[in-house]
Amino acid sequence: MNEKSDKVYLRSFTALLISIILKDDARTRFFNNEQVAYFFKLANTYIFAEKDFRGYDSTNGWGHALAHASDLLVSAMRHPDYELQVAEFFGNLEELILHIQQPLFDNEAKRLGRVLNQAFKMPNLTGNDFIYYCDRIDRICWQKHQQVKDPQPDYCLDFWIETLNAVFFISDVHDLKEYCDMKVQNYYTNLGYQG
Asked: How far is Cα 5 from Cα 194, in angstroms, rounded to an integer?
């Protein structure tokens, strides 16, 4: 997974298929505990291990691995047997965000926003912990942004803000919406946008 190859299509669409299967298993249990644990492990690792962030390729079609991996993790998180490993999840999320080195414009941030929104709803994640970890990612993205020399673009901060913006629009939790709005407004203020 560390190099760009057409194997991304197999990985990506396998993740999408497993997400559909996990969604069904959450309603009508047909997997045993060992099988479900295996799929949870895939959901927890694939999204953070994939390095091929192609969206649509005019030759081969949709790769969309980050979006499909996000769908898989959301399906896992919605399963009644899933338990979020909070520190591990946010550590991996931080690493993922920091390694975005290209513009992603095929709804990847929106799909990752669904993951964050679902994580917020997990019973073992407090609102304070959520804010702590997101503040940490935000701070590290800003530090990276300040180290980038013009005219080289910084995609990680932009992707992070797009993800928070997506959470703002899909969340039905007032405090979460306020937090995301504050981070997005801070982004525009710090970059000197007026209006």
From this structure: 42
pTM, full prediction = 0.93
CA dihedral in degrees (92, 177, 102, 59; nearest 10)?
A: 100
75-109 tens-digit pLDDT: 999 999 999 999 999 999 999 999 998 889 899 99
Model pLDDT, residue 2: 67
Phi and psi of 37, rounded to 5°?
Answer: -60, -40
Determine the Cα angle at 131 with ends 173 and 104, to 5°. Answer: 80
Residues 131, 87: contact at Cβ < 8 Å? Answer: no
- DSSP secondary structure string for all residues of the chain: --S--THHHHHHHHHHHHHHHHHHHHHS--S-HHHHHHHHHHHHHHHHH------EETTTEE--HHHHHHHHHHHHHHSTT----HHHHHHHHHHHHHT--S---SSHHHHHHHHHHHHHT-TT--HHHHHHHHHHHHHHHHHHHHHPPTTS--HHHHHHHHHHHHHHHH---HHHHHHHHHHHHHHHHHTT---
Question: Would you call 92 exposed, middle or buried from its count of C-beta atoms within 10 A (0-12, 13-18, 19+)?
Answer: middle
